Amino acid sequence: MYSSKYIILFCLSLFLINCNNNETQKSSLAIATNSKTFTLGDTLKLSIKNPKQLDITSTTYLLDGKNVNEISKLSEVTLGEKELMAKVEVNGKTETISTSIKVYNNKIPSIYTYEIVNTYPHDITSYTQGLEFFEGELYESTGQKKESKLRKVNFETGEVLKNIDLNDSYFGEGLTILNEKIYQLTWQANTGFVYDVDSFEKLSTFKYGKSKEGWGLCNDGKKLYKSDGTEKIWILNPKNLTEEGFIEAYTEKGKIPSLNELEWINGKIYANIYQKNGVAIINPKNGGVEGVVDFSPLKKLVKQHDELDVLNGIAYHPKRNTIFVTGKNWDKLFEVTIKKK
Questions:
Q1: Based on the domain organization, do 159 and 258 belong to the same domain?
Q2: Is residue 260 part of a domain?
Q3: What is the full per-residue pLDDT of the chain (341 aa) written as tens digits?
Q4: Has this prediction a pTM greater than 0.85?
Q5: At 160, phi and psi to the nearest 5?
Q6: What CATH number does residue 169 fall under?
Q7: What's the pLDDT at 75?
Q8: Do 173 and 231 have their domain in common?
Q9: Is position 213 within any domain?
Q10: 74 and 116 share a domain?
C-alpha cells in the first residue's frame, strides 16, 4: 500500500503538471512598423506579423491609447517614447500585443542670447528652487533640509516681506501661483503644499502620482505643469492635483533630461536644465524643444564662494516683459531680455 506521504507527492505532481499546461502561451503575433524612430510629421505604417497564418478577422491599433490607422501621419502627437498596441481578433478571441516607438522633434532648437537690463541683490543663503511673480511681487521657494523656505521678496532691494520655514524633514522645490493659491513641491518626500497667497496659511497637502520626485512647477492659468528631474513634464489638475498625463522634452536628436525649475512665458514652458546653466524653451502641446538660452556666463558675475551652485530660478514679469534669473546661493538676481541669435 502507498503511504499518505506518497499520495500527497503524487497529487502535488499532477497539480504542477496541470498548472504548466494551463500557462498562457506566448503569442506568435507581433506588430511590424516601418521604423522604430520617427520625426514629427513622418508617416507610420503598421501591419501584423503572422508567421503561423492564423485566421485574423480584425485588428485595432492604438498609439498611447488612441486609435490610429494602418497608415497614419505623426503630426498631432506628443514626442518621446510611445506605446503602440494592437488588439487582434483571432479565432473568436482578442489578443493584445504591443511594442514601442520614439518620435523626435522636426525642428532644430533656436539659440537665444540675452541682455542684462538690471541687477538686484539676492539672498546668498537661498538655495533657489522656485521663482515666480504674482501681481508684481516676487515669490521664492528654497531647498536643502533644515533650510527650506517659502517667501515673498522685494525684488529690487532683496528685502524679505513674508517668510515661512518648512519642516526640517522637507527639501523645498519649485512653486507656482494660481487662483490666489501657492503650490509648492518638495523633492523626494512625495508631498506638495498648497498655501493662501496672502497669509501663507497652509491650506492642504497633496501626493504625487507616477512622478517620483518634485522639481519644478508652473501654470498656464488653467493647469499646473510639474517636472520630476527627467525629460517628463507632468500635467496636473489644480482642483485635485492628480496627474492627467505628461509631455516629454525632445529635440530632433533625443530627449532633454534633468528638467528643473519651470516658468510659463507667452505660451511656452521655460525649463532650467539642471547642471547646465541653461534654459530650454518647450512647446507644451507636444514637448518639442524650440529654443535654448545659454545663461552660463552669469555665474561668473556673482560672488564666488564654496556654496555657490548652478543657475536655477526663472520668473517672467509680464508688465516689464522681462525675465528674472538667479541661481542656488547666488548673491544677485538678473533682469534680462532674450532674443534669437
A1: yes
A2: yes
A3: 445 444 444 444 444 444 444 434 567 899 999 999 999 999 999 999 999 999 999 999 999 989 999 999 999 999 999 999 999 999 889 999 999 999 999 999 999 999 999 999 999 999 999 999 999 999 999 999 999 999 999 999 999 999 999 999 999 999 999 999 999 999 999 999 999 999 999 999 999 999 989 999 999 999 999 999 999 999 999 999 999 999 999 999 999 999 999 999 999 999 999 998 899 999 999 999 999 999 999 999 999 999 999 999 999 999 999 999 999 999 999 999 999 98
A4: yes
A5: -85, 115
A6: 2.130.10.10
A7: 93
A8: yes
A9: yes
A10: no
Q: How many distinct structural domains can be found in the chain?
A: 2
Q: Is residue 141 situated within a structural domain? A: yes
Q: In Å, what is the CA distance from 291 to each residue of 42, 94, 113, 128, 321?
A: 22, 45, 10, 23, 18
Q: Give the range of the structural domain holding residue 239, as residue numbers without chain letter.
A: 110-340
CATH of the domain at 75: 2.60.40.1080
Residue where a domain terminates, one of 43, 73, 104: 104
Query: Contact, 137 vs 318, CB < 8 A?
Result: no
244 and 292 share a domain? Answer: yes
Whether 31 is covered by a domain: the verdict is yes
